[in-house]
Design goal:
This protein is mostly helical. The chain has a domain of about 240 residues. It contains 21 helices and 2 strands. The chain has a two-stranded antiparallel ribbon.
Length: about 525
């Protein structure tokens, strides 16, 4: 049997654990949805996450981690692990201090951030806005923990270690489940012979679960630091390595701000809809969409980044281009039919997992389907953006993200003003701006690389054929198979997925030979 390549093993590790994480996340989401329903409290919890998430993304999450991995990979290849950990320590110290300062500012100005006309949720009543501000302040504790934990993920991935970082989100979800089952309920919760105590904290208990999850997210990665002989340097000195990270992070901060701004604008628009639970519908629709996006796009692209960074650092541009090309072909061939198959069999599963009323189930189903229209664009964007960061070029992804966000805001305002009857579907439809961004990023990348353009070629054609066959097969099977709706939907999705395999088998084999 042929031995799997390092990239394939890394990708499969990430896919497996990201998949487990999504299973646990569905359990968590189902528990929370059934406890709180389509309610103002659940809307408040979902909206309150936005500014803390923005702070994390700008400082140590997607911003600094994406900038950190290429620099650490370069230092590891040239100077060795002790020098790399020295750079990591200084960056982590700086991230924690900056996060702390901004967390204090956000806590002080929480009310105006929520209530201002251009704030997070100006369309809600005063009581609900006060609750959002309170929950936001509590969430900042988790943000401080993540300011370190997010960088630890990047540090371990730069060392080509993916197992513990892949497990960390799973433990984060476990903490949130404890919050939902123990901290929130007023009555004890029984799981078989086990009866869990109830603390009766309501929606505040969900935030305590987030804090616990953040601590577990960091704790599970500590053995990895020990394995790779991590040594902490108590310094904020801006040495050469740190300056390289900061040079990359400046445009990355702008990029992450624009990405997170989309979520803030989305909830701002949702608060103006005459629908209870609009923000929750958009949050959960995005959550369902993120399952295939994470397993296909994020997992594979995350595994590719350290290798792309090594190719770039050593000027191996032929290998660099070939690696990007393989990634794009895999993304297109897998994501197109997967989106169609999921969309076709989605509704009974949404009803079973979330337990909403018929109106809520219909809203969530169609909102998710519209999000899924952009799955291929999102996954290709994951590879394209990482290709630029591997080249230590953060400017072009920043420009593309600014244009995407501007388009989202403009068309979002048009939809909410001119076509409010579209509801959450209209806001989700505006998210197709990400597909336009992916096309733009790949066009720009092709201009930078020698050799044939990376377009997906025959993989795109096979993916589209698989989409038509798989989507139609899943829909017909779910519609005409005897049995309950949930069973027929699951069987339809499974058989539909098997039917598309012959069309995209070449790309499936490519995944196992990265």
């Amino acid at each position: 049997m042929k031995k799997l390549t390092h990239l394939t093993r890394s990708s499969l590790i990430l896919i497996v654990f990201f998949g487990l994480d999504k299973v646990v996340a569905f359990v968590r989401t189902s528990i929370i949805a059934r406890q709180f329903g389509r309610s103002t409290e659940l809307d408040a919890f979902n909206v309150a996450n936005n500014v803390p998430d923005l702070l994390f993304a700008l400082i140590s999450g997607g911003a600094m981690t994406m900038a950190l991995i290429p620099v650490l990979s370069e230092v590891l290849a040239i100077k060795g692990r002790p020098a790399a950990w020295n750079v990591f320590s200084r960056v982590a110290n700086l991230a924690f201090v900056v996060t702390g300062v901004f967390a204090i500012i956000v806590a002080v100005f929480a009310e105006p951030l929520v209530s201002a006309r251009l704030g997070i949720a100006p369309g809600y009543e005063a009581v609900q806005r006060a609750l959002i501000a309170n929950l936001m302040r509590m969430n900042l504790i988790a943000t401080l923990i993540f300011s370190i934990s997010g960088l630890v993920m990047g540090g371990l991935q730069a060392n080509q270690h993916f197992l513990l970082p892949a497990m960390a989100p799973l433990f984060y979800n476990l903490g949130q489940i404890i919050g939902a089952l123990v901290f929130s309920p007023s009555d004890p919760y029984s799981i078989g012979p086990l009866t869990l105590p109830a603390m009766g904290l309501g929606v505040h208990g969900l935030v305590y679960g987030v804090i616990l999850g953040a601590a577990l997210h960091l704790g599970i990665q500590v053995p990895g630091l020990i394995k790779y002989q991590f040594h902490w340097t108590a310094s904020l000195k801006l040495d050469e390595g740190v300056l390289k990270v900061l040079k990359l992070i400046a445009p990355r901060v702008v990029t992450m701000f624009t990405i997170q701004l989309i979520f803030i604008v989305r909830d701002n628009l949702a608060s103006q809809l005459p629908l209870v639970g609009a923000a929750t519908i958009l949050t959960y629709g995005w959550f369902i969409f993120q399952v295939p996006e994470t397993l296909i796009g994020t997992a594979i692209a995350t595994a590719l980044l350290p290798t792309l960074s090594e190719h770039a650092a050593q000027n191996r541009w032929v290998e660099f281009r070939d690696t990007v090309d393989k990634g794009v072909r895999i993304m297109l061939a897998l994501s197109l039919p997967v989106a169609a198959v999921i969309a076709a069999g989605l509704r009974p599963l949404v009803a079973a997992v979330f337990g909403f009323d018929d109106i809520g189930t219909t809203m969530l189903t169609w909102t998710t389907r519209i999000f899924l229209l952009g799955l291929a664009g999102h996954t290709v964007l994951e590879v394209g953006v990482r290709a630029f960061y591997a080249k230590q070029d953060a400017i072009r992804p920043m420009v593309a993200s600014i244009l995407n966000t501007a388009a989202f805001i403009i068309f979002g305002v048009v939809v909410i003003r001119q076509m409010p009857q579209w509801g959450t579907n209209g806001i989700a439809l505006v998210g197709l701006a990400y597909t336009a961004e992916a096309i733009f990023v790949m066009w720009w990348l092709n201009r930078q690389l020698e050799g044939p353009s990376i377009t997906g070629g025959s993989s795109l054609v096979r993916g589209m054929l698989a989409t038509l066959v798989g989507g139609a097969s899943t829909y017909l099977l779910a519609l005409y198979l005897p049995g309950g709706a949930i069973i027929t939907a699951l069987v339809g999705i499974i058989i539909g997925g098997l039917i598309v395999l012959p069309f995209i088998w070449k790309e499936v084999r490519l995944l196992f030979n990265l």
